[in-house]
Amino acid sequence: xxxxxxxxxxxxxxxxxxxxxxxxxxxxxxxxxxxxxxxxxxxxxxxxxxxxxxxxxxxxxxxxxxxxxxxxxxxxxxxxxxxxxxxxxxxxxxxxxxxxxxxxxxxxxxxxxxxxxxxxxxxxxxxxxxxxxxxxxxxxxxxxxxxxxxxxxxxxxxxxxxxxxxxxxxxxxxxxxxxxxxxxxxxxxxxxxxxxxxxxxxxxxxxxxxxxxxxxxxxxxxxxxxxxxxxxxxxxxxxxxxxxxxxxxxxxxxxxxxxxxxxxxxxxxxxxxxxxxxxxxxxxxxxxxxxxxxxxxxxxxxxxxxxxxxxxxxxxxxxxxxxxxxxxxxxxxxxxxxxxxxxxxxxxxxxxxxxxxxxxxxxx
Length: 364
Fold this sequence. Notes:
By secondary structure, the protein is of the alpha/beta class. It folds into 2 domains: 8-289, Alpha-Beta Barrel (TIM Barrel), CATH 3.20.20; 295-364, Alpha-Beta Complex (Type Iii Antifreeze Protein Isoform Hplc 12), CATH 3.90.1210.10. The chain has 15 helices and 10 strands. The relative contact order is 0.11.
């Protein structure tokens, strides 16, 4: 993510391995083949995250049925520490960065200390989980904070917790007042700018296009002065491409080996060929963004004389005759006297005779 001119693309495998290490390894291969910069999984201990009474989200019930609890569903999607180490090794061989989102303190510490991942993502659902946010801050890694389902006020509070952790570690008894002070502290702001990227996100699977609100990316950037990316849950690839065009520095998109597989997230995910198409399109967009300067591009220069016009004789003009609106015209090719000087030439006398369509020349 250090190259500001290149969108960092994360292929979100998430739990689309359905608890199978073999499928997870295949997801890594497909992400690498598609040209993504990183492939990201989810690391958790179900009992640490979900209570026995937690119901499924509507989309989860629609995709997996209602015969089991959310806890029972998620238990099937866990991968153990040994599996994670195999994923990291496979990513290294495939030439793609391994990332994962932790959902509990144990998993966070395992990723940060055990696997030494280069960055951590804070999922949208944890934006009000102050104790876990503090643990993220204490991990000492660059952080990506997803902002699905949140208001600007909630994002500010979450950033305050992170700033408090950056500045004070575990010292003192954290409070909302101290979080606000840390957020307002110039040193806290500097640390946030150095360590945190925000992700705009709509937490629904799939997300309706009308709920995406890509313009909020600019709002986040202005409100917090932090780099902003986009995590996409819409069908297809149009919206992440549009987000790249609007300046997202990071893009995250769920993908699967097969949308027909059972599981909560497959139906809102891309299949491998679609992921490849998205990556290719985003690379084209970032190349097309270019600079803010408006000058002729190198590829245009050869077309200037073809597409532009020069002053020519509209009909035969005798030597000494005056140029008038009836005998002076502008036609292709360019390269001669610019039509921008048309009125300068009206009333002048021709210093030589001209045949129809002959370019007007300055001097004899």
